[in-house]
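Box 3.1 — From sequence to structure: HECT-type E3 ubiquitin transferase
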Amino acid sequence: MDNNEAAVKALELYKVNAKLCDPHPSKKGTASTYQESSAHSNSACSNKKMNHKDIHSVRDNFKDVNYLTEEKVYEILDTCGEKEDYSPLIRVIGRVFSSAEGLVQSFRRSKPHTKEELKSLQGKDEDKDEDEKEAAASSTTAMEEDSPTSSSSSRLGECSSGENDVQKLAPDEVSVDIEAVRRVYERLLSNDKIEAAFLNALVYLSPNVECDLTYHNVYSRDPNYLNLFVIVMENSNLHSPEYLEIALPQFCKAMSKLPLAAQAKLARLWSHYSAEQIRRMVETFQQLITYKVISNEFNSRNLVNDDDAVVAATKCLKIVYYANVLGGDLDMEHNEEEDEEPIPESSDLTLQELLGEERRNKKGPRVDPLETELGIRTSDCRRPLIPFEEFVNEPLNEVLEMDKDYTFFKVETENKFSFMTCPFILNAVTKNLGLYYDNRIRMYSERRITVLYSLVQGQQLNPYLRLKVRRDHIIDDALVRLEMIAMENPADLKKQLYVEFEGEQGVDEGGVSKEFFQLVVEEIFNPDIGMFTYDEHTKLFWFNPSSFENEGQYTLIGIVLGLAIYNNCILDVHFPMVVYRKLMGKKGTFRDLADANPVLYQSLKELLEYEGSVEEDMMITFQISHTDLFGNALMYDLRENGDKIPVTNENRKVKNMSLFWKTKNMQRLKQFSLTSLIVNLFKRSTLVCASTGYVLELNSYIFDEAVSSCLCRREFWETLHSFGEEQKRLFLQFTTGTDRALNDSLKLPTSHTCFNVLLLPEYNSKEKLRERLLKAITYAKGFGML
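Predicted structure (token representation):
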């Protein structure tokens, strides 16, 4: 330190032992200075003494600052700027931002004081100068009552006053002046030395806060304790490298200890933030998660689930996620009615009951406690503040051991965290893997129960759901068989599917089932069958309003789609978004027409916005028309006697626009069902992505030197990259199970679709390889034994 700093330090140490009657420069630190200054005039010497007195008076006031206001920060900043010495400000920031009590009281929103409060302030501050009295009078009651006495008694006083303040606040409000905090950060963070003070103070503050929340239940006694989290999160430099090592992980651990009510209040508060502010907080927590994942070597022995920093950051990210949902475009009114009659419990014993365990989640999918506290569902959000994709952390998905994580999810132990409880951070591939484990465990459970029943009750052993179908009559054979199973023993649908094509030798290890579902879906959704219509403009399927099929046929279709998901088969089925909303428990509304029928939506929108006389200019009624399978026009009344009711400016706006979806075909959606884990893991957008299929990147393979040295292999990849998009798609279908090739005398390429393995013979030229490969993927059909 320089001479000036040494002098300040000496004065501070000196005042600890004795209070100076008249603040005056110490002779120890400035003896030579006073000798030199004796040569000046008496007036100059007098002015210099007064300046020293003012400086020490200000420094004394800074030492007594235990909380901050915007005005106080600017006062200290201006004083330090004049002397070009920011050490007093650094010490004040370190003292306040490292103290939970001081930070909770800082930057409170000002409110008018009563006469009694002003009198008490005057009594307490008799020995203080006039400026400090005015500063104290402009602050809040809780700030004014602070004193440097016992911290325990001070905290108890803060609790009582804090509770009174919070009772006057709305559920999405806090007593801190957020705009003032932002202005202060904007001015201070440009100075590197001052920023280091924030960093060091946060390192000291976080463990104490974590202890307070874990053991002292401080939030229930003082809800204003939430202020410190609001203030710290406004620091726009939290994602910088300096914070990632110690400060931010410790702070995330402290925030993750907040009780449920405090987390909900934070989510409601942050829901009023702009998209840019939400994105900044998301990037802060994502930066920490990515940093910890990359800087550590996670594997099956060193699980990422055991990293406290990653887990804490994920929990904090969940608060921001629900703030993003709350702040978006919500539709909380159009929910499906709950079933009036309770679903009867099955009389069959499950594996859990046989093992003495109670059945869990009887009422449906697991619901996040924070979601319940906020009174919302993620499916209520049509458009969030920022896209849900920004919450996915790809590095975390790469190191996550999904089998272990799924175990933690099902066991629900307190000491093991499962990322499946925060599905927003997982990508579709990881979620699909979790769904695979869930389905397989269900299959194994049904298999064990079947074996147990066969031993105890003498039943015939049938551990699989076996379907034997003819390729030329696949719809008739499959739907009739599934209908019989659904009527006789619906529990068999939970068994692993085993498909056999009559007259073919293929053994179903997964590949035969893939082709079965692909063929069934192609047949069912063929417009010539008449069950569904296809819109060439939107490329979407919809229920045919003129179909002659009964409800049972649509029930069987729902069973087929459910079996496909249950057996891990992705289907190329395209529905409007309203179908997925229906599956997630939401009703169809007028807004859903935008993607289901854009022409109708635009026409109705123009009708609603028409400013002239609808009755005289348009002359329409509450009756619509559509065509049947034979092209005949059919009329449908939207209201009783709708053909006689003209549409006017007064009655054109229907309060419940879900009327457009209340047709017999929309009711058939009730036959489509999803497992509870799908509802818990997947959102509507993810379901759409999963249903529309995907194009696999073909250049993502890495070969060792032995393989890359083979001319045939290199030519194979060169040939594959020369294919068009349709030919590449056929190749993927060929190698993964949709189409098959026989091993004939021409030595065509073949594949084990159950294991996604391509068998490629060696050819003497690239042209021959191309010709054989194109023939294999174009004319492949059927199964055979190699």
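Summary of the box: The radius of gyration is 36 Å.
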